[in-house]
C-alpha cells in the first residue's frame, strides 16, 4: 500500500534506458524496463544524434514499463533540436563532440570577454556550451527556419506530451542563465544577439508538464491519462539529487559515466576569477542549489579504447589492469584534447610519450593508465573545489556507471585521501524517479529524499590506503597541480 511507480527515461551518451522506480514511504526499488544503444552517426555534414531512434527506444521502454503513475525525462546536457514554425524538427541534433564549435568561443569573447561571461553565467569554458553551438549555427539555412530551440530531454518531453518548455537545471548548461537569479541572463543574450524567444518558457523540476499524447498511449498500449512530470532534466542534476549524503555530512560527489563530474553542492555560485581559471562550472541543481563542479573526460577514455579494440570483455580487462603497477604513467584526464572520438589508444600513448613517461603498450597497461589518470583528475577536482568554494569535505560520494568499477573507486579514495562511498549505479534514473515521487507528495525536501536513500540503497565504502604523496608527485609530473 502507498507504493507508486514512476518511469524514468534517462538518455546517456552511449545508451538510453527506461527504468521503473517503485517508491513507498520506506522503500525505493528500481528495475530496468528497457535499454537501447545511443549511437551517434557521422554524415557528411558532421556528427549527429539519431534522435528518432532514441524516441523509438523511449516508446519501446514505456510499453515494457507498463502502468506507471508518471513519466519523467532526463538526458545529457547542452545539445538541442530546432523546430520550424509548424513545430517540426529541423534535422538531427548536432552532437556536442562535433567539430563545428572549433574557434567559436574566441569569436563570442570578442563581444563579451570570457571573464564577463563567467561572472554573468558561472559556466565553465567548454567548446560545446549551447551558447557556442548556437553561435556556430547562426549562419546556416536550417537556423534561419528555426522558431524554437528545445534541449534534447525537453524535445522528447515535447514529443511525448505536445507541451514545450525549458527545464531549468539543463537550461543552466546553455551558458545563458544567471545562476544568482536562476533566470535567463538577458544581458548576455542581448549583447550576443541571442533571441531568447527561441526558447520555450522555463520550468522547474517537479512542475507538471502534461500527459502522454493519445498517439503515444496507442503506440505503447498504455491507458491514460499518464502524467508527465518535469525532473532535473540534466542527467547530472538528477544524479546529484540521488547522492546518498547523510544529514549534515560534508561531502563532495563524483558522477561517473561517459564523463566524470566532480564537485560540490553549494547554496550559491562561486564566480571568482580564480574559479574561472580553474574551469569550475556553476550548474543549477534542485531546490536552489548550485552544482559546482568540473568536467573530467571520464570513462569515455576507456569506452573509446574498448571500441578501438573491437569490444573485448571489460571484466577481464579490468582484472588485468588491477595487476599493473600504480601510477606508471598518467595523462591529464581534464584535457580537451581527448574530446573528439577516434584512435584513443594511440592518443593516450602519445600523451604519455610527450610527457616523458613510460608508454603503456598492452591493453591492460592502457586501461590502468586511464583509471589512474581518472583517479588523479578526481583528486585534483575534489581538492580544488574545496579550496575555491572554501567548503571542506570529509567524504566523497561516487555514483553512476563507475560504481561498478571497484578499482576506480579504490584508486579515487587513495588519490583523494578520503573515504569514497559508492552509491547508485543508475543515479540519474534514481534522482529522476525521486523528484517525480516528491512532486506527488511521497517524499519531502531534498534532505528527506536523501534520508530515504541512505536507508534503502546499498552503499560500498572504500577506505584510502594512505600514501597520497605518490598522487601528489604524479600531479607534479603532469604539471596539473
Ligand atoms: C553527462 C553530461 C555532462 C555534460 C555532458 C555533455 O552525461 O550531461 O554533465 O557536461 O554530458 O552534455
From TrEMBL:
Alphabetical list of CDD domains matching this protein: ASKHA_NBD_FGGY_RhaB-like
UniProt keyword terms in alphabetical order: ATP-binding, Disulfide bond, Kinase, Nucleotide-binding, Rhamnose metabolism, Transferase
Domain Carbohydrate kinase FGGY N-terminal: 68-240
Pfam families per the UniProt record, alphabetical: FGGY_C, FGGY_N
Protein name: Rhamnulokinase family protein
Domain Carbohydrate kinase FGGY C-terminal, chain residue ranges per copy: 252-439
Chain residue ranges for the region called Disordered: 461-481
Record-stated family: Belongs to the FGGY kinase family.
Positions with biased composition (Basic and acidic residues): 467-481
InterPro entries according to UniProt: ATPase_NBD, FGGY_C, FGGY_N, Rhamnulokinase
Organism from which the protein derives: Streptomyces bangladeshensis
Amino acid at each position: 500500500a502507498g507504493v507508486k511507480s514512476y518511469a524514468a527515461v534517462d538518455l546517456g551518451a552511449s545508451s538510453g534506458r527506461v527504468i521503473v522506480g517503485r517508491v513507498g514511504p520506506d522503500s525505493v526499488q528500481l528495475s530496468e524496463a528497457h535499454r537501447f544503444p545511443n549511437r551517434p552517426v557521422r554524415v557528411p555534414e558532421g556528427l549527429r544524434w539519431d534522435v528518432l531512434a532514441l524516441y523509438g527506444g523511449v516508446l519501446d521502454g514505456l510499453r515494457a514499463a507498463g502502468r506507471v503513475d508518471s513519466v519523467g525525462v532526463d538526458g545529457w546536457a547542452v545539445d538541442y533540436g530546432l523546430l520550424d514554425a509548424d513545430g517540426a524538427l529541423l534535422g538531427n541534433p548536432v552532437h556536442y563532440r562535433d567539430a563545428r564549435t572549433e574557434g567559436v568561443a574566441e569569436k563570442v569573447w570578442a563581444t563579451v570577454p570570457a571573464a564577463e561571461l563567467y561572472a554573468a553565467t558561472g559556466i565553465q569554458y567548454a567548446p560545446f556550451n549551447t551558447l557556442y553551438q548556437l553561435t556556430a549555427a547562426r549562419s546556416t539555412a536550417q537556423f534561419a527556419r528555426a522558431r524554437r530551440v528545445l534541449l534534447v530531454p525537453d524535445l522528447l518531453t515535447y514529443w511525448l506530451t505536445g507541451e514545450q518548455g525549458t527545464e531549468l537545471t539543463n537550461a543552466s548548461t546553455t551558458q545563458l542563465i544567471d545562476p544568482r537569479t536562476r533566470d535567463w541572463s538577458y544581458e548576455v543574450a542581448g549583447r550576443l544577439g541571442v533571441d531568447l524567444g527561441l526558447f520555450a518558457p522555463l520550468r522547474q523540476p517537479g512542475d507538471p508538464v502534461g500527459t502522454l499524447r493519445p498517439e503515444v498511449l496507442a503506440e505503447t498500449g498504455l491507458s491514460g491519462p499518464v502524467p508527465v512530470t518535469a525532473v532535473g532534466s540534466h542527467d547530472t542534476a538528477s544524479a546529484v539529487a540521488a547522492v546518498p549524503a547523510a544529514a549534515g555530512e560534508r561531502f563532495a560527489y563524483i558522477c561517473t559515466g561517459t564523463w566524470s563530474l566532480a564537485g560540490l553542492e553549494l547554496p550559491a555560485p562561486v564566480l571568482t576569477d580564480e574559479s574561472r581559471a580553474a574551469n569550475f562550472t556553476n550548474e543549477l541543481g534542485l531546490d536552489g542549489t548550485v552544482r559546482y563542479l568540473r568536467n573530467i573526460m571520464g570513462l569515455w577514455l576507456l569506452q573509446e579504447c574498448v571500441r578501438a579494440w573491437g569490444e573485448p570483455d571489460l571484466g577481464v580487462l579490468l582484472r588485468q589492469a588491477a595487476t599493473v603497477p600504480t601510477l606508471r604513467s598518467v595523462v591529464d584526464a581534464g584535457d580537451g584534447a581527448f574530446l573528439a572520438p577516434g584512435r584513443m589508444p594511440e592518443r593516450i600513448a602519445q600523451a604519455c610519450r610527450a610527457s616523458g613517461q613510460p608508454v603503456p603498450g598492452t591493453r591492460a597497461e592502457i586501461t590502468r593508465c586511464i583509471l589512474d589518470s581518472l583517479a588523479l583528475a578526481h583528486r585534483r577536482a575534489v581538492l580544488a573545489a574545496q579550496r575555491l568554494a572554501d567548503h571542506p569535505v570529509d567524504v566523497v560520494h561516487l555514483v553512476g556507471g563507475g560504481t561498478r568499477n571497484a578499482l576506480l573507486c579504490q584508486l579515487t579514495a587513495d588519490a583523494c585521501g578520503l573515504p569514497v562511498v559508492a552509491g547508485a549505479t543508475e543515479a540519474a534514473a534514481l534522482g529522476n524517479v525521486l523528484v517525480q515521487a516528491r512532486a506527488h507528495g511521497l517524499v519531502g525536501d531534498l534532505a528527506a529524499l536523501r534520508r530515504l536513500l541512505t536507508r534503502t540503497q546499498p552503499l560500498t565504502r572504500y577506505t584510502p590506503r594512505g600514501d597520497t604523496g605518490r598522487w601528489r608527485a604524479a600531479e607534479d609530473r603532469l604539471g596539473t597541480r
